[in-house]
Specification:
The protein has helices spanning 37-45, 53-57, 113-120, 132-143, 157-162, 187-209, 228-245, 256-260, 286-290, 310-322, 339-351, 373-379, 396-406, 410-419, 426-436, 445-457, 462-476, 478-493, and strands spanning 2-10, 13-21, 25-31, 64-69, 72-79, 82-87, 95-100, 127-129, 152-155, 170-173, 179-181, 215-220, 247-253, 267-272, 278-281, 303-307, 331-335, 360-365, 388-390. By secondary structure, the protein is an alpha/beta fold.
Length: 494
């Protein structure tokens, strides 16, 4: 059995036909940036969701997504300035879910700041123990220990309903005794809980109904949230789930680690041709699929820099450009998600010889954990050979909070107010933030969210904000910048 999908005029895809096999197993959709991987996966997810199509795809002229499963037809078409559904008399019987690592997906349904603050104030009585399937696999995949999260909870449905939530947020008890809500968790924890929660629901449906309809799962670039060791354990887990429950699980991915776990017959390589059409290669061997993803000209990168997140990546890129460190050198900066994840991935990369010969490795962590690293290295002596440096600031979010809220830096404030926030005064944004947030926004993430929302309202993006902040850092954090530049220079020189 196969699911045929036809796409027309959706984002970067002008026209494409793609056939999803529905036999049990895991499948990979890969290709270079801009080849249409994420768009294909997002389009595919509309087969079983009543989705807000304008939010996901906008209002493209003559656009359509159409599915065919045996005699059943279903889809969407943009006509007369709105999206209309396409359906046949035969019902399309298919179950599944979609999870995206960035903006779209189940875990982003209840991420308004008001909801996050509301979850922070909940008590133990508002929740109940999480399902054992979710709890044990959550610990097993992230930490190779099924009992790592001994106290994992889920919000009671009555409480969720009373608060107007559409999802079922999870909580775990931290080592300090407090409860951490799902929106407050790391990107990897948040993503994995959403996947496990949806898999549990599908598992129960399959077990209770024991029907023969296809079950299909779509996951978009999960490697952006999980480091190599957790990713490998997730793939092994999903292989087992797919086999036992007869699921077809599709990933869009750049990860060579993931691709190595999948047989060539289940790898689909997308390539954008010179005429802007897209060709699909299947079967595809991992070495062929990654030849351009990991080495644009076949020779690889001179320097790979591991950082905690995408914001750190942008800061490093800006500093390297300003200090002319990217001249005549190929550099790849990889966000890995959390400082311990970064160190674990660096260890995996060096011990497994994942880098091509001649490629050097640098590790740059957020400065706020600099005092934690020595104790961590003492407890994990296998990491002692790693050479580490730090961003010039704690983190971008904490830096903004320190300089705009805790003790106002008038120079930075004036620059942002004059050149970035030209619709609503920055002071007004900060007053709204302080009025709405009575609890300590210790990591600065809520403040950063307020600023991003304001940027979006002006049709600007974070690049406009970060450009000004990095210039300020270069001017007023010269000692810390100098340390980082010296470290990166030593890695480049070798």
């Amino acid at each position: 059995m196969e699911l045929l999908m036809k796409i027309n005029n959706i984002k970067s895809i002008k026209e494409l036909e793609f056939t999803f096999p529905l036999e049990k197993g895991i499948y990979a959709i890969t290709g270079e940036n801009g080849s249409g991987k994420s768009t294909l996966i997002t389009c595919a997810s509309t087969v079983f969701y009543q989705m807000p199509m304008n939010d996901y795809f906008g209002k493209p002229k003559n656009a359509s997504i159409e599915f065919k499963l045996e005699e059943a037809v279903r889809g969407w078409k943009y006509i007369d300035n709105h999206w209309e559904t396409i359906s046949s008399d035969s019902r399309m019987l298919i179950n599944g879910f979609y999870e995206g690592s960035i903006i779209f997906g189940n875990r982003f349904k209840d991420t308004q700041f008001s909801v996050i603050r509301s979850l922070d104030g909940l008590e133990d009585t508002d929740m109940m123990p999480a399902d054992e399937f979710v709890r044990s696999n959550f610990g097993l995949i992230l930490h190779n220990d099924s009992d790592y999260f001994k106290e994992l909870y889920i919000l009671k449905k009555s409480v969720a309903k009373a608060k107007g939530l559409t999802g079922d947020p999870y909580f775990y008890r931290s080592s300090l005794g407090g409860l951490v809500s799902q929106p407050r968790m790391s990107t990897g924890e948040n993503l994995l809980l959403s996947i496990l929660h949806s898999l549990r629901i599908l598992k129960e449906k399959r077990t209770k109904r024991n029907n023969h309809r296809p079950y299909i799962v779509f996951l978009d670039e999960i490697e952006l949230a999980l480091h190599a060791s957790a990713l490998r354990r997730l793939i092994l887990f999903l292989k087992d789930i797919a086999d036992k429950l007869n699921f077809a699980i599709f990933f869009s991915t750049h990860s060579i680690e993931l691709l190595r776990e999948i047989k060539p017959q289940n790898i689909y390589y997308l390539m954008r041709n010179i005429d802007d059409s897209i060709s699909v290669t299947n079967p595809c061997y991992p070495a062929y699929a990654t030849r351009n993803l990991y080495s644009d000209d076949g020779y690889g990168n001179d320097l790979v820099i591991l950082v905690e997140d995408d914001l750190a990546k942008i800061i490093i890129e800006r500093i390297m450009i300003e200090k002319t460190l990217m001249k005549n050198i190929r550099v790849k900066i990889l966000p890995t998600g959390g400082w311990t994840n970064t160190l674990e991935m660096a260890y995996d990369v060096t011990t497994s010889n994942l880098l091509m010969k001649g490629t050097r490795l640098a590790i740059v962590l957020d400065r706020d954990i600099k005092t934690n690293v020595p104790d961590f290295l003492k407890k994990h002596k296998e990491y002692s050979g790693l050479k580490i440096d730090y961003l010039p600031v704690k983190s971008l979010e904490k830096y903004l909070r320190d300089k705009l809220v805790v003790k106002v830096d008038n120079t930075l404030f004036s620059l942002l107010d004059s050149y970035v926030f030209q619709k609503n005064p920055l002071n007004e944004i900060l007053r709204t933030y302080k009025r709405d947030n009575k609890k300590d926004d210790f990591d600065g993430k809520i403040l950063y969210g307020y600023m991003l929302n304001e940027l979006r309202s002006m049709r600007k993006d974070r690049e406009d904000l970060i450009e000004i902040v990095v210039k300020h850092i270069l001017e007023y954090e010269k000692n810390n910048v100098g340390e980082l530049v010296g470290y990166l220079t030593s890695k480049i020189v070798g």
